[in-house]
Amino acid sequence: MTEQTVTPSSIRSDLVDIAIGFLKNPRVEGESMVKKREFLQKKGLTDNEIDYAFKLMPQKVETTKEIVPNHQPSFLRRILYDLIVAGFLGVALKFLRRLFQSQKSIKVNELHEIIKNLQKTVQDMQTSITKLEQAVNQSNSTINRAASFDEIKREIQTLKALCLGRSQFPPIPQITPPSIPSWQLEAAQKAKARISPVADVTIPKKTNDDNKEDGDSIIVVSENEKKSDDENNFSISPSSESSNDA
């Protein structure tokens, strides 16, 4: 109420209150008077209103002016602060360096172990491969042997089959040339002796008138030869039957 009585009619109280709130802000207290005035003028306040706002809070402005220099650090304090920060940074860098070195050494050791394990696994693989090759070669040799044994067995079986087939059939009889018994030979010789005088007779040449007589004589000789042949056949047939029966 006192502020309204003191303020003239040309001063706007609402804007003055806003300016006072602005000047009470701790961020604005450290700024200079010129900047504060320029800011309030931009907001639409007149010079009278700005002066009136400053009059309402003269002590705070003065105290801020007096207090601000006291908060400024001295040169020695800044140097000490910088040294402390540098010391902390050095310690931190050393710690980090040791940590990285230890991690690197750990990683290097791990890599060496991994390489050794890989070398061992490669050697094991090589030995297993050589063993597999040997086993394959042995299996191939056994397969070849088995195949040769199978072939030999087949040949033996075929030979056995042939031998058994021959033993099942009876032996082939030996064919002997037919022979005439002695008594049949004697009979045949006697028959030849009977026929030979007739066959050996020389027939003289005759004329055409005597051809009939010659024909008759030839017929007689041929009939005698037929009889002798029939006797020989009769004598030979029993001997052949006897040989077949034998």
Explain what this protein looks like in three dimensions:
The chain is mostly helical and 246 residues long. The chain has three domains: 2-72, Winged helix-like DNA-binding domain superfamily/Winged helix DNA-binding domain (Arc Repressor Mutant, subunit A, Orthogonal Bundle); 75-168; 182-245. 82% of the residues lie in helices and 0% in strands. The chain is built from nine helices and no strands. This is Peroxisomal membrane protein PEX14. Residues 235-246 have a biased composition (Low complexity).
Concise overview:
The protein is an all-alpha fold and 246 residues long. The chain is 82% helix and 0% strand.
Oligomer: single chain
* Portion in beta strands: under 5%
Compute the number of structural domains.
3
Largest sheet: none
Number of helices: 9
Q: What is the helical fraction, as a range of percent?
A: over 70%
Strands, count: 0
Shape: rod-shaped
* Mean model confidence by pLDDT: 69
Low-confidence stretches at least 5 residues in length (pLDDT < 50)?
Answer: 1-7, 60-71, 198-223, 234-246
Distance between the termini: 178 Å
> What's the helix-strand series?
HHHHHHHHH
Task: List key phrases describing it.
246 residues, disordered N terminus, disordered C terminus, mainly alpha, Arc Repressor Mutant, subunit A, 3 domains, 9 helices
Helices and strands in order:
Blueprint: H1 2-6, H2 13-24, H3 26-29, H4 33-42, H5 47-56, H6 58-71, H7 75-168, H8 182-199, H9 211-245
